[in-house]
């Protein structure tokens, strides 16, 4: 199996090493693990691509590259340049430092990398590690992802919907809960949720030179959320598994709106 690994935390991020370990276990001794990851942190860039500027690509070692671009750029670089005609059998994006449950998924470069892989017709998963107080003293905060990641992806490869002829191919968003690996209670297949009463915001900051800047401030990650969703599953100690696609249409609203507008 040939596996491509990317992320949004950057080529030197510890979560990338966790994803590489997961990929190596999946690929086996006869497989290949390729890494094309951002040269610098790209958190929060979602599915953006560097459409109006070129992406510099550097070969760091065999099958390992850094790109001055987004995770989606990295996938494009791998598929159309780095890996030649031998496309990957699986794309792993992550392991992200922090969760991409709920509304976080909409901002996530980790999810954006997996989405781009799916748009390229490739099987893809986004992996993220929820952080919380129970993990404060852990030597390796990515331990839950490391211990449970390969086993879960194997099951997903056997039982997931990997249909390649759909207009928008599915990809999978996986979030590991904020507890030690031996306290993970299992896996739940759940929809994306929303944390209630919170949102990203900005906080003004006055620099020493008198210029005014704005910092983006993230919301609390442990507040109440949609029941039965990825957020609640994670906070209850479960791995969340959410099938996603790039189609943003609210299909349930199409026909009622059509009838109303035609009337």
TrEMBL record:
Residue numbers binding a divalent metal cation: 8-9, 43, 96
Cofactor(s) required, per the database record: a divalent metal cation
Keywords, in A-Z order: Cytoplasm, Hydrolase, Metal-binding, Nucleotide-binding
One of the record's GO molecular function terms: metal ion binding
EC number: 3.1.3.5
Coiled coil: none
Domain Survival protein SurE-like phosphatase/nucleotidase: 3-196
Class of this enzyme: hydrolase
Alphabetical list of SUPFAM superfamilies matching this protein: SurE-like
GO-annotated cellular components: cytoplasm
Gene3D superfamilies per record: Survival protein SurE-like phosphatase/nucleotidase
Cofactor comment: Binds 1 divalent metal cation per subunit.
Compartments where located: Cytoplasm
Principal cellular location given in the protein's record: cytoplasm
Catalytic activity: a ribonucleoside 5'-phosphate + H2O = a ribonucleoside + phosphate
The keyword Metal-binding is assigned to this record: yes
Record function comment: Nucleotidase that shows phosphatase activity on nucleoside 5'-monophosphates.
Similarity comment: Belongs to the SurE nucleotidase family.
NCBIfam families: PRK00346.1-4, PRK13931.1, surE
Protein's name in the database: 5'-nucleotidase SurE
